[in-house]
C-alpha cells in the first residue's frame, strides 16, 4: 500500500459521502492499517483536490484536517453532509464503504 494508492482511493469518494480510515484501509487490503491511513492522509500534498476531508472517524466524528476541523466541517456541509454536534448525521447512510 503506497501513499498514491490511498490518494487514488480517496478520489473515488464522491461529494456528499464520507468514509472512515478503517474503510479505506480495508478497501486497500490492510484492514488493521487505519492509523497508517491517517498518517498518509495527514501528509496529503493537496488536501483540496485529493478529498481527504471526506474521511472521518469510525464513529462518524469529524476528525482532523490540514486546515482545521472547522474548515473540514464547512467543506463537508457545502457538499451536503449534515452534522449533529461533531458527528455526521445519518452516518451509515452517508458512509461509503467501498
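Q: What amino acid sequence fits the structure above?
A:
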Amino acid at each position: 500500500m503506497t501513499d498514491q494508492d490511498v490518494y487514488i482511493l480517496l478520489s473515488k469518494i464522491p461529494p456528499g459521502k464520507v468514509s472512515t480510515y478503517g474503510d479505506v484501509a480495508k478497501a486497500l487490503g490492510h484492514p488493521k492499517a487505519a492509523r497508517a491511513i491517517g498518517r498518509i492522509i495527514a501528509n496529503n500534498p493537496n488536501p483540496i483536490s485529493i478529498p481527504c476531508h471526506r474521511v472521518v472517524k469510525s464513529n462518524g466524528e469529524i476528525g482532523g484536517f490540514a486546515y482545521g476541523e472547522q474548515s473540514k466541517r464547512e467543506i463537508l456541509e457545502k457538499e451536503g453532509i449534515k452534522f449533529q454536534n461533531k458527528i455526521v448525521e445519518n452516518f451509515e447512510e452517508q458512509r461509503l464503504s467501498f
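Q: And what stands out in the fold?
A: The chain has one domain: 3-94.
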